[in-house]
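step 3/5: co-fold with fe (ii) ion
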Amino acid sequence: MTSTMTGSVTNAADQQDLRDNMFPVDREIEVDQCEVEGEIPPGLRGMFVRNGPNPMFEPIGKYHMFDGDGMLHGVAFADGKASYRNRWIRSRGLQAEVKLGRAAYPGLSDVMNFPSPDLVGDAGPVKNPANTHIVRHAVRLLALWEQGLPTEIAPDLGTVGEWDFAGELKGAMTAHPRIDPRTGEMFFFAYNFFPPFLVYYVVDAAGKLIKRVELDLPAPIMMHDMLITEDYSVFMDSPIVFDMEALSTGGSMVQWKQENGTRIGVMPRMGDADSIRWFEVPTSHVQHFWNAWQDGNRVEITGCRFEQVDFGIETEASDKESGIGEAGGVPARYWVDLDSGDAGSEFFDDEMGEFCRINDDYTGIKSDKLYMSGFTRPGARGGDFDTIVKYDQATDTRTKWYSGDSGHIGENVFAPDPDGSAEDDGWIVNSSHDSATGQSEVLVLDARDIEAGPIARVQVPQRMPFGFHANWFPASE
Ligand SMILES: [Fe+2]
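step 4/5: write C-alpha cells
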C-alpha cells in the first residue's frame, strides 16, 4: 500500500453530512489483489469506478454532501481477480488548498463568498470538485460536476485536468450526458443562473464539440439529466428554480415553484432553438431518467418521479440543517404524442427509489430491464439505499435483493457480458457498506437473477464512504 495524499477532516462541528459513512477517508491506497467471496465471472473484465464527495480539509462553514472534493474508487476486474485504488480528483481548487494546508472555498451555502486570489492564486472563485459522475467518451474519462467543466481522468485515476473540448466549451457540463451507443455521439446541456438558462451541446464520436444551441426557459432551473431517442433530444423543465435573493437573505437557494408546472421539451438532435416543442405534463420532477425511445410518433420516457424536491441547500443564514428531503422518486412513465400534442405521466409501481440505470447499449431505444436503487428499511434518508431493484417491463415483474439491516448500497451499474445477447445478459456491479462491521464491498450480481444476490463480493480494503454515481468501463475498449 502506498499513501500519496492525506486528508485532515475531523468534523469538529458535528455536521450532519459528515456523520457515519459520509465521513471522508483520509488516504489514497492501492491493493493489487483484493479478497473475494464467491467467484468473479471470467467475462467481467474492466473497471468499476465510483465518484463521490470526500473533503480533504475541514470545511469552512456549513457543509453539504454536494460540496466535497471528488474521490474516485476504482475496482478493476481481470482473470477472476480484483484490484482496488482510490484517488482524490486534484481539482485546481483542491491544489490551491493543498498549498495552503487548509480549506479556502466555502460550500454551496455560501458559494458567493469567493476566496481572495491572494489565497487561491489562479484557481478561480469557485471550486469544481468534479464529484458527481464519471463517463467515458472518445477515449477520455471525464469526471463531472454540473456547474463546471468536465475534468479529464487518466486510466490510473490520476487527474489530467479540466477539459473544455479544445476551447469549444465555455461553460459547465451536466453530470448526466447521454451517449448514443450506435453513433458514438454525446449529447449534453448546461444550466445557468442567468440567460441563456439552458445551453445544449452535441459532441461527435471523435470527441469534437460540433453544436451549441441556446434554449429559452421561463426561469433559471436546476436541471440534472436529459434523454435521447434515435431522432430527438428530450429535456424536462421542472419547477426547481434558483432563488438568487436567497443567497443574501437566507433560506434555500433552490425553491420548488409549483405554479411554474412541468414541461417536456422534444427537439431534433441536430435541431436549433426554434425546433424544440414543449408539452405540459403533471407537475413533477425527475432527477434521473432510465431511458427514452420512439414508438411511432410517441416519445416514451421512464424515470423516478418526484412530486416535489428539496435538496436542502440552505444558506449560511438559514438555521435549517442541510439534508435532502424525500428519500426517492417513484417509478413512472411519461409520454408525448408528437402528432396530437397529448402528453402525460403514470406510475408503474409505488415503491420509492432513485439512481435509475439501464444497460447503456439500449440508450435511446426501447429498453425493458430497468435497475433502481431502492429502500426496504423505513425512514431512509435520500441516497441511503439498501435494496437493488429490477423491473422487467416485458413481463411486468419486479425482483429485488435486500442488502440486510446494516447494509447500504449505491448505484447499479450494468456490465454487459461480451458473450451475451439479451438485454440483461451481464452483471450488476454496485458498491455496498455494512454499518455494523464497517466493511465496504463491491458486489457482482447476475443481472438476470437479482434475487439470487451477489455471486461475488470484492472486499474493499478500506471504508468506501457514501457517494454518488458510478460507471463500468470495459477493458476491451
Ligand atoms: Fe445524478
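step 5/5: annotate
Helices lie at 92-100, 117-120, 246-249.
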